[in-house]
Amino acid sequence: MPESEVLSSLRVAVVALALVATGCASLDELAIAQTERLEEGEFYATVGPGLQGPVDPAIVLPAVLDPELANSLSYGRRAGDFAPIMAALNGALADDSCCRLVAAVALPPGAPHVYVGSADGALAPFEARDQVLPHDEFPPMVMHVRRPSAAWQQAMAGLLAREGATHAILVSLGVSQYPKGREGVFGKKVVLGTAHEEPVRFLTAEDKLLEVLQLTGVLVNAQGQVVRAGAEGILARDTPFAAQVLDVEKSLDDRTLQAVLTTERRKDLPGQPMKWQAALDNLLWQLQGDRSAATVP
């Protein structure tokens, strides 16, 4: 049996055991959200029914800023700092060949939401802590998918029917925290997404999380159900070592956000595309299930 099928079977078994252990309350919780543990280098998961092979045709809605940032002390009043990146993302979506951009439509509250990051991240949902196992040296990466409300799901189904599409993709720009990984005996790295790793400087606390600018997304089917979710990190920033000693965490500053559109490039890829462009391309193709089209070295 392929490794992916083995992992999928294990996840189903874990969910089944959780239901047996906790009863009907868990049934209610699973109906609105799902949390999965992610292994290193894993950024996508199939979370709903009816996804078999690449999907076509698909539409994509304009990208939005992750609404959870409004609850962050570091980013709650900084929506304007992200606006230039949002404009670039939506400009790219209008020209992308993978799917057709549909102009902003009025959908009811209750859109699906994805968290990808450390189980101990600042914006991690409470349920993420349940994925930490006794043998874990550091909290693992997790994916938490909050499913849409019934009203949103019904409205999305109507939109897809009107557009003659079988699936839709939703993209969000946000911030998360990723753990550091090991590279050889003494080196450190961070895995940010599809074939995207970057070194981490030697003088850094191994247990301190990295601040990551990322894209998250979901693929929904003709009934408005979430069937696949994932994320791609754009860039990571570490807190200076002296601040780490004092247990201080650094947020992404204005200079870093400006560099996203000017100097932050994937030098390991042909043509050295901007990191945000490579992340967006990978997110769209991976969500659709066409991994052969992903941007890889």
Features:
alpha+beta; seven-stranded mixed beta sheet; disordered N terminus; 297 residues; globular
Shape: globular
Number of distinct beta strands: 13
Strand content: 25-35%
The amount of helix comes to 25-40%
Structural description of this entry:
The protein has 297 residues and is α+β, with helices and mostly antiparallel strands. It has one domain (34-293). It is 29% helix and 26% strand. It has seven helices and 13 strands. Strands 2, 3, 4, 5, 8, 12 and 13 form a seven-stranded mixed sheet that branches. The longest helix is centred in the first third of the chain and has 20 residues, at 3-22. The protein is globular. The two termini are 28 Å apart. Mean pLDDT is 84; it is low at 1-30 and 241-248.
Question: Mind sketching the topology for me?
Answer:
Layout: H1 3-22, H2 24-32, E1 33-38, E2 44-46, E3 58-60, E4 64-65, H3 79-95, E5 100-101, E6 113-118, E7 141-146, H4 150-163, E8 167-178, E9 181-183, E10 187-193, E11 196-200, E12 210-220, E13 226-237, H5 241-245, H6 254-259, H7 275-288
Parallel strand pairs: 3-5, 3-8, 4-8
Antiparallel strand pairs: 1-7, 2-13, 6-7, 8-12, 9-10, 10-11, 12-13
